[in-house]
């Protein structure tokens, strides 16, 4: 787990270092300096978060709750990922004469910039150091952080207010639209379907009187229909049948 956390933090020579460094170097060489600075800041935040995770879980105060090892379905994939976190970055390492890119026939060559490598590693180590100071040694108290960072601390502490936004979206937009759909279903759809059913029942009640079960009545209706049809044909033919 710690190997994966260090790899994600971008610590050499783990796999995460090479992927992170390639992105930061590409941003610098393409003169996207804003993206370059954002990438460095994100590298700092990532290592800070991963350091916080490791220090609180593995080095914090021992919890009374008994924990157990995860089952093999989780342990085996974690072992495989841990091994890849160590060796996967070297597959395409530019220092190797025969790396993955040359094997695939790709002419792409990773850009090497030792200065940026040192800079990105420094940001990663700085994030781990900050997490060690704040979450393990407790040298930086929360109240002091509130005083120093002020509004920015509140934004981060409230997770950029994303939870509030999602809650508002769920309560006002989704539930509001759902309430409209419920009203439409009850007042329009249900009434339309129930009204059609009521109309069918009323027509059936009226038509059932035609079904008397007496043969002579059916014969009378058939005979009357024949007479009506005969007169209709007589009229439209001008009296010539």
Structural commentary:
- With 241 residues, the protein is mainly α.
- Helices cover 73% and strands 0% of the residues.
- It is built from 10 helices and no strands.
- The chain has helices at residues 2-9, 15-29, 33-58, 72-87, 100-103, 114-136, 142-149, 151-157, 162-207, 215-236.
Question: How would you summarize the topology of this molecule?
Answer:
Blueprint: H1 2-9, H2 15-29, H3 33-58, H4 72-87, H5 100-103, H6 114-136, H7 142-149, H8 151-157, H9 162-207, H10 215-236
Please supply descriptive tags for the structure shown above:
0% strand; mainly alpha; 10 helices; 241 residues; 73% helix; single chain
Distance between the termini: 101 Å
Question: What would the principal axes of the Cα set say about the shape?
Answer: elongated
Mean pLDDT: 81
Can you give the helix content as a percent range? Answer: over 70%
Write a concise synopsis of the structure shown.
The protein is mostly helical and 241 residues long. Helices cover 73% and strands 0% of the residues.
